[in-house]
Amino acid sequence: MIGAGVAGLACAATLSRAGLRVCVLEARGCLGGRARSWRDAHTGVVVDIGPHVVSTEHRQFMRLLRQLGTDRDVSWQPQPLIELHDAQGRLTVPMSDCMPPLHGLPMLPARLLHARVHRIRPAIPQPRPGSETLRPANRTAVAGLLLAGDWTDTAVPCSMESAARSAALACEAVLGPGHALPAPETCGLVGLLRRRA
Length: 197
Known about the structure:
globular
């Protein structure tokens, strides 16, 4: 296995549980790929990089956590919200289940006095309209070479769910069916583009 991101580690765990010998190679000194945290030098706050946001809708990722016995380690927020941190403090922005742009209605009473955006290029993919259809499949033209990662075609937007689903799809290519859950119906712009392809 080349790469110890979420997809690589999920593949390794599944293949190992199936009795295969697995070797994981990682270039960095830490595991997790883009799913990691760092301490902000200005605020001292531990910042979680966006791709490892988990929701109850991430069924494949939650299945992986259950298989690993770590599903109870997730700290669930009691309501949908986003927390913004800077040197002046914390602003909690409530969210809703409404379709965009209406999902921001609950934050109208909130007042943001100051914000600083830390853009971490490799952390959050920025898809362009139509690029969703360009994601490569798990299977390649090279015998025995499979791809897994949130950037592959999983029928799910790039996310922790997509990484876990790509691992399950790659494992199905090796072990047979029964590892990948059905893809949820995609909505919004990604769903529209996927249906047109």
